[in-house]
Specification:
153 residues; 61% helix
């Protein structure tokens, strides 16, 4: 935990509200520190977004190879998305990377959190949003390339 000088000039633990996205000691994630740096939070957003897009794109491409029937392809893709992405993929990424970055993994989420959190001073700052968005977009592009490349013959 970091240290801050208190009112009497004595050092004490740095305490952030439990919902603060900069607070990374809420769990035991891969990138936990007492207060994650912006660079670590941006890296976590990029990695998490890339991983989720890889799972979605990969499952979509793989489902098209299972059958020629479009209905079966859609059903297989929906099952893969529900169980592969939501249950396992997203849960793992949130557990590993969430403590460092709040696990937004979608460019709209920090925009909405910043917009709604500004009145309560609980959302990400404009600087954080400006750093998250390019990282998430780059992660999504990398994840799409990875997801489409892993299924090519």
């Amino acid at each position: 935990m970091g240290l801050l000088l208190g009112a009497a000039g004595r050092a004490g633990p740095a305490v952030l509200p439990p919902t603060d996205p900069r607070r990374a000691d809420r769990g035991r994630g891969l990138l936990t520190t007492s207060i994650a740096s912006l660079g670590r939070r941006v890296a976590a957003e990029c990695i998490g977004t890339a991983g989720l897009v890889t799972v979605v794109v990969g499952s979509g491409i793989q489902s098209t190879e299972l059958s020629r029937d479009v209905g079966v392809q859609l059903f297989a893709n929906s099952l893969a998305a529900v169980f592969g992405l939501a249950v396992f993929g997203l849960a793992v990424f949130i557990a590993l990377l969430g403590p460092a970055s709040s696990a937004h993994f979608n460019p709209v989420v920090p925009l909405a959190a910043g917009r709604t959190g500004r009145s309560t001073e609980d959302g990400p700052t404009a600087r954080e949003i400006a750093a998250y968005l390019p990282a998430q977009i780059a992660g999504a592009i990398g994840g799409a390339i990875r997801g489409s490349g892993q299924n090519s013959r």
